[in-house]
């Protein structure tokens, strides 16, 4: 072999195919029987796919997936649960709580992935749930179970089985507090779909989002309620996160669009004099960068004195809002708390705020306005262009006072002075 430089490698040309000649059938989908889950998946589980379901411990991953297996098994589909976290007795008790009938569900408490693979080859289930990927291990990789090298190997093994056997494999992955799949972002690249479960302990509602989906849109959310008998889909979640009708100072209602749905939520802000050199900026349920940005715009463009104030922001009900339309109500909530004056009653808002202090267009104004009207709101503040769009579509109800907003500074003057 030559030293230095790469040795020349002779290779025969591999055949390529003509796309026109290729015959493929569409993916086969298996509805799970849980409508909200199917909505997020894009119509059901795709045969032979590998799906990751992530979420913080306690959010309800094991519960939801057991419900799926019980439902599928109950309709005669071969299903297998591989549990590295719970004993058969614990699974049995949970299944009972979920109102298990005869389901034909097979259970395996094994953590070595090669053995799990052998069981899959023997049993050939249509759907297999692995709870959780962090408990599986292989002697072929270094590190403890849950380490990056282990998870990479284990997932690779499961992927091969899913593809060769046409078994749909759903793996559970725990997520740390800061929202990362413990250890491996690498996992997200290996799987066909990544669903994340959001929600907070103490709140019954859960949001399921597709953050990656090779077989569907990533633009959909499913809404569930944790009940005494497992996760129940919430088909009309619009006002779910609005806890009551009274709005104190520091609260503003947003009509947010998450996925294809409109959710109304209360954004709460508390502004208090700080005793710290660097005042606190604490946000829950909203992106930290957006909070910093809106605070900066309020300081610089609307003249709000926030530099010596601690600022706490929260979205009620444990909801996480990703819609940029939450900027405007966030600004209103902060201003309302600083002035200690509540916003006018029955008022909601949506709109993105730019660094120049202007309120920018957000999509789906018509849907937002309709949902607000349906829930008894009589006034909405929104970007000029969004209002124009809704008017053109003829969907601004006559009883709704829709006010276009162009600039944050003049808006706050108008609302609070
Ligand atoms: P679990 O599915 O174990 O969460 P994860 O697998 O994500 O860690 O569910 C956790 C919580 O749900 C647990 O605190 C008990 C509660 N729960 C219910 O409220 N109702 C139910 O029917 C079940 C099975 C669990
Ligand atoms: Mg669990």
List the helices and strands and how they pair.
Blueprint: E1 29-30, H1 35-41, E2 45-46, E3 50-55, H2 61-74, E4 79-83, H3 88-97, E5 106-108, H4 113-123, E6 127-131, H5 148-165, E7 168-174, H6 186-190, E8 193-198, E9 205-213, E10 221-227, E11 230-233, E12 251-258, E13 261-273, E14 281-284, H7 288-301, E15 309-315, H8 327-339, E16 347-349, E17 352-353, E18 359-360, H9 365-374, E19 379-383, H10 384-392, E20 401-405, H11 408-416
Parallel strand pairs: 3-7, 3-8, 4-5, 4-6, 6-7, 12-16, 14-15, 16-19, 19-20
Antiparallel strand pairs: 1-2, 8-9, 9-10, 10-11, 12-13, 13-15, 17-18
The structure holds thymidine-5'-diphosphate and magnesium ion.
CATH topology of the largest domain: Rossmann fold
Which value, in Å, is the CA radius of gyration?
25 Å
As laid out across the biggest beta sheet, the strand order is 5-4-6-7-3-8-9-10-11
CATH class group of the largest domain: Alpha Beta
> Oligomeric form of this entry?
single chain
Q: What ranges have pLDDT less than 50 throughout 5 or more consecutive residues? A: none
CATH superfamily of the largest domain: P-loop containing nucleotide triphosphate hydrolases
How would you portray this structure in words?
The chain has 417 residues and is of the alpha/beta class. It has 2 domains: 208 residues, Rossmann fold (3-Layer(aba) Sandwich), CATH 3.40.50.300; 178 residues, Ribosomal Protein S5, domain 2 (2-Layer Sandwich), CATH 3.30.230. 29% of the residues lie in helices and 25% in strands. Strands 5-4-6-7-3-8-9-10-11 form a 9-stranded mixed beta sheet, sandwiched between helices. Strands 14-15-13-12-16-19-20 form a 7-stranded mixed beta sheet. A two-stranded antiparallel sheet has the order 1-2. Helix 4 runs parallel beside helix 5, helix 7 packs across helix 8 and helix 9 packs across helix 10. It binds thymidine-5'-diphosphate and magnesium ion (MG). The site of magnesium ion (MG) has 4 residues, from helix 2.
């Amino acid at each position: 072999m030559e030293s230095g430089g790469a040795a020349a490698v002779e290779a025969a040309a591999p055949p390529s195919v003509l796309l026109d000649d290729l015959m493929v059938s569409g993916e086969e989908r298996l509805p799970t029987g849980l409508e909200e889950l199917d909505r997020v998946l894009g119509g059901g589980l795709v045969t032979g796919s590998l799906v990751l379901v992530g979420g913080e411990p306690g959010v309800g991953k094991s519960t939801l997936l057991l419900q799926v297996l019980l439902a599928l098994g109950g309709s005669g589909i071969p299903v297998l649960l591989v549990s590295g976290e719970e004993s058969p007795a614990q699974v049995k008790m949970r299944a009972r709580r979920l109102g298990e009938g005869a389901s034909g569900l097979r259970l395996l408490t094994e953590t070595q992935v090669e053995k799990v693979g052998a069981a899959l080859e023997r049993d050939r289930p249509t759907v297999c749930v692995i709870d959780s990927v962090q408990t599986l291990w292989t002697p072929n990789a270094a590190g403890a179970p849950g380490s990056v090298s282990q998870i990479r190997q284990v997932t690779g093994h499961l992927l091969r089985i899913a593809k060769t056997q046409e078994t749909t494999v759903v793996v559970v992955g725990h997520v740390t507090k800061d929202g990362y799949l413990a250890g491996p972002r690498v996992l997200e690249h290996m799987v066909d779909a990544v669903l994340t479960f959001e929600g907070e302990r103490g709140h019954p509602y859960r949001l399921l989002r597709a953050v990656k989906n090779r077989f569907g849109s990533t633009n959909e959310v499913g809404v569930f309620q944790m009940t005494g008998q497992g996760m129940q889909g919430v088909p009309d979640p619009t006002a779910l996160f609005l806890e009551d009708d009274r709005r104190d100072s520091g609260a503003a209602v947003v009509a947010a669009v998450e996925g294809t749905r409109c959710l109304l939520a209360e954004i709460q802000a508390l502004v208090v004099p700080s005793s710290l050199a660097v005042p606190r900026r604490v946000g829950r349920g909203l992106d930290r960068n957006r909070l910093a940005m809106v605070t900066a715009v309020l300081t610089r463009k609307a003249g709000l004195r926030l530099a010596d104030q601690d600022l706490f922001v929260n979205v009620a009900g444990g909801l996480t809002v990703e819609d940029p339309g939450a900027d405007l109500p966030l600004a209103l909530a902060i201003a309302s708390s600083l002035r200690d004056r509540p916003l006018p009653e029955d008022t909601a808002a949506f709109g993105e705020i730019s660094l120049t202090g202007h309120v920018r267009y957000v999509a789906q104004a018509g849907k937002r306005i309709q949902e607000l009207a349906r829930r008894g709101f009589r006034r909405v503040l929104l970007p000029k262009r969004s209002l124009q769009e809704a008017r053109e579509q003829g969907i601004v109800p006559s009883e709704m006072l829709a006010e276009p907003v162009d600039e944050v500074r003049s808006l706050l003057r108008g609302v609070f002075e």
